Amino acid sequence: MSTIYELDSTYIASTYKRFPVCITSGKGSEVTDENGKRYIDLGSGIAVTSFGIADEIWQQAVIDQIGKVQHTSNLYYTEPCARLAKLLCEKSGMKKVFFGNSGAEANEGAIKAARKYAAEKKGPEYYTIVTLENSFHGRTLTTLAATGQDAFHKLFQPLTPGFVHTPANDLSALIETVHSNKTAAVMIECIQGEGGVRALDADFVKGIAKLCAEEDLIFIVDEVQSGNGRSGYMYSYMAYDVLPDVVSTAKGLAGGLPIGAVLLGEKVKDVFNYGDHGSTFGGNPVACAAGISVMERIDETLLAEVREKSAYLFDVLGKSEGVNGVSGMGLMIGLDTVKPAGDVVAECMKNGVLCLTAHGKVRLLPALNIPMELLREAVAVIQEACK
Ligand SMILES: *Cc1c(COP(=O)(O)O)cnc(C)c1O
Questions:
Q1: Hey, whose CA ends up nearest to atom 15 of ligand 1?
Q2: Same-domain check for residues 48 and 68
Q3: What's the confidence (pLDDT) of residue 141?
Q4: N or C: which end of the chain has fewer CB atoms below 10 A?
Q5: What are the helix (H) ranges across 12-95?
Q6: Which of 366, 362, 286, 293 has its CA nearest to residue 324?
Q7: Domain, as residue range, for 106
Q8: Mean pLDDT of 27-44
């Protein structure tokens, strides 16, 4: 197996600092490495494998579709693409869908929709998108510009112009920023993921929704990480009782296959015309068949279970030695630990539990259907590692 490490470090661009573990197989929330060591997976490939590894229902949906047709291009109709779009609209309150292949691509589409709407409605100079400090929206040059973390910006200038950042949870600062620019849209994550698993204040989110409605701005919610059941709600904005104009989503949507989706609400549902946007792989039938199998299973029963598991984690980890605080929502959890987060994650890994970090915190993103016994077993390992 050392040859895999050698091959990887010789031939793969050095953008990722990998753990010295090669995952070879898994089932549900358990994975196995090349030495046969078993881990409980609390990362889900960064909120992607919504129902765990090699889930039977998901697998069957993918296999069935691969046996029929794996790709057609967007010159033709396919059933999975149309059916997934309907499901997404029914479950989100949005009206139309554009499919891409990643979170960054979904956000690019959301930004294009907002800019086109504003250009037609108010004039092409109304192109500014207001986003939050500490946000994360992706790695393309435009979504990097949207990302409110300077550390990601260095050495990649010039980024796409027209993005300004304002502090989270400060509504008057946001309103001031909106008014001092020719603004097209406000774009937020209701629960900042990469920025440290922090749920925004309810008054702040409601205030943005109200401002956008009153001033005809496009309210974009980035649900790439928090969407599709992860927050304990179908989409995290539902916990805030607001309705965005545009929703972007990706990660967990197809349970482990690449997908991204821009969900367009009433105001912008017809903003795109022929030729305005496109993607060769977007709406791929295999990814969409996987997406249907995931979305059909996220019902009120499952969401209630996600909220119950969340309450358990908040409770038990909140009173654990070496834990200063628990943040997040649903099964998107951040732990502010006394020890450095990286040390806790390394110790957990040694003892058979895979966790993540985010902005100095330990981050947990288990599968939505992780069995309670496994969660308890993993929590005991985390508690020990935090001491
Ligand atoms: C992961 C993430 C993205 C980027 O998604 P990719 O699929 O890596 O392009 C965008 N926004 C949020 C909130 C994310 O968590």
A1: 225
A2: no
A3: 97
A4: N
A5: 44-47, 56-68, 79-92
A6: 362
A7: 58-295
A8: 97
pLDDT digits (tens, 9 = 90+) for 304-355: 999 999 999 999 999 999 999 999 999 999 999 999 999 999 999 999 999 9
Whole-number Å distance between alpha carbons of 31 and 53: 8
pLDDT at 150: 87
Q: How many CB atoms lie within 10 A of CB 257?
A: 18
Atom of ligand 1 nearest to the CA of 189: 13
Token pair of 267 as six digits: 């105001």
Do both 306 and 290 map to the same domain? no
Choosing from 295, 330, 361, the residue where a domain stops is 295
Q: Is the pLDDT reported for residue 153 higher than 90?
A: no
Ligand 1: which of 15, 132, 137, 144 to mutate, most ligand atoms within 8 Å of CB? 137
Which of 224, 236, 359 gets mutated to test ligand 1 (max ligand atoms within 8 A of its CB)? Answer: 224
277 and 344 housed in the same domain: no
Q: What is the number of domains present in the chain? A: 2
Domain end position, chosen among 270, 295, 320 = 295
